[in-house]
Amino acid sequence: MLFLLRREWLLSWRRRAELVNPLVFNLMVITLFPLGITPEAEKLAVLAPGILWVAALLATLLSLDLMFRYDHQDGSLEQVAASGTPLAALILAKIINHWLFTGLALTLMAPLLGLMLHLSGDLMLLMMLVLALGTLVFSAIGSIGAALVAGLRRGGLLLSLLVIPLYIPVLIFGTGTISAAIAGLPFVAPLATLAAMASMALAAAPWVAGAALRLSIND
Q1: CA 219 → CA 47, 144, 187, 214, distances in Å?
Q2: CA–CA distance, 1 with 7 (Å, rounded to integer)
Q3: Quick check: 18 pLDDT over 80?
Q4: Which of 61, 80, 55 is nearest to 146 (CA)?
Q5: What is the per-residue pLDDT for 99?
Q6: 3-state class of 74 per DSSP?
Q7: How far apart are CA 10 and CA 15, in angstroms?
Q8: Beta strands of the chain (E only): which ranges?
Q9: Which one, of 199, 197, 90, lies nearest residue 147 by Cα?
């Protein structure tokens, strides 16, 4: 597992220019929202959770297509499958690596983007925790969609159609947690639900994506 994680890290680092695109896209979306909606601080503070989550979701979608593309093109997936290495282990390494380069990066950007949207400083740590859990679910569920379209040349649009409906519950509980905190209401229940979703997705996604990826390899 450590070897797979190191391999994925090195491959991603060599293609780091492509991985920066989602982060730049996220920054551009957050920057343009006040110009397109309203510059008023009170209204932006109310809309901030939804804006941050939608931007993070769209930024994650941009990088999902890269998860298996190059390995499928150069035959690495076939070699891993033929070597007897469980595909679930490879996919788990890819999920963790994708989250580190995309989800964690988006989480660390949250305080700066939250300040741009006039989000209260008291909520920054909670926002980072919620984004960390939510983006982990995005990476796990996204691996299933990426595995299904791994053999397609232009599967980006189909990938988005597959995973966006599955992302909606994460979006609801993520924004609900922050909105409840802003309103002074209890937010432990939606936060715990989001944590449970992250645990279930991380446990189940490698096996489901492995089955889907085996179908793509055989095709």
Answers
A1: 45, 17, 46, 9
A2: 10
A3: no
A4: 61
A5: 92
A6: coil
A7: 9
A8: none
A9: 90
pLDDT at 155: 67
Distance CA 187, CA 163 (A): 26
- 126, 139 in Cβ contact below 8 A? no
Average pLDDT value for residue range 152-179? 86
Query: Domain ranges in the chain?
Result: 2-218
Separation of alpha carbons 110 and 128, rounded Å: 6
DSSP for 172-200, written as a single string: HHHHHHHHHHHTT---HHHHHHHHHHHHH
Query: What span, in angstroms and rounded, lies between the C-alpha atoms of 29 and 116?
Result: 12
Collect all residues with Cβ–Cβ distance below 8 Å to 177 and sequence separation of at least 6: 126, 130, 187, 190, 191, 194
Closest CA to 129 of 79, 66, 194, 185: 194
DSSP 148-181: HTTT-TT-HHHHHHHHHHHHHHHHHHHHHHHHHH
Burial 180-197 (b: 16+ CB within 10 A, else e): bbbeeeebeebbebbbeb
- Measure the CA angle with vertex 120, ends 116 and 126; round to 5°: 105
Contact 91, 134 (CB under 8 A): no
Q: Counting beta carbons within 10 angstroms of the beta carbon of residue 89, is it exposed (0 to 12), middle (13 to 18) or buried (19 or more)?
A: middle
Determine the Cα–Cα distance for residues 137 and 140; give it in Å rounded to an integer.
Answer: 5
CA distance 167 to 32: 23
Mean pLDDT, range 56-64, rounded to an integer: 88
